[in-house]
Write a structure and sequence with these properties.
Elements (H helix, E strand, L loop, with lengths): L10 H10 L2 H13 L2 E2 H5 L6 H13 L3 E6 L2 E6 L2 H30 L7
Helix pairs in contact: 1-4
Length: about 120
Amino acid sequence: MTTTGAGAGTAAEDRVFAALANATRREVLRLLREKGPQPVQALADHFAMRRPSLSEHLKVLREAGLVSEQRSGRQRVYRLEAAPLAEVQDWLHPYERFWREALKGLGDLLDRMPDDDRP
């Protein structure tokens, strides 16, 4: 997920970030991570929406490479594909480092300040 300037991200990266921008899709990923592969109906049972709406969310996740679909008879079973998330983590790492250093600086400042014993 290397970029050379503003707007230099690839279409695949943009699809991953767009997919992750939605709370329902993040919840689907969480369910698949925690409970393993699941048929559409088992996933749908967790949401207050019609199944076609959930299917649209699953389509976005599938196109972003975050889930895969396997057909078993009339059933569609979805599985988490975590590889694109490693690219997101790589992209976020410098920001995590930035905030860790900023908060360490704040902690150092607070440690140097005298304690206020007033009630």
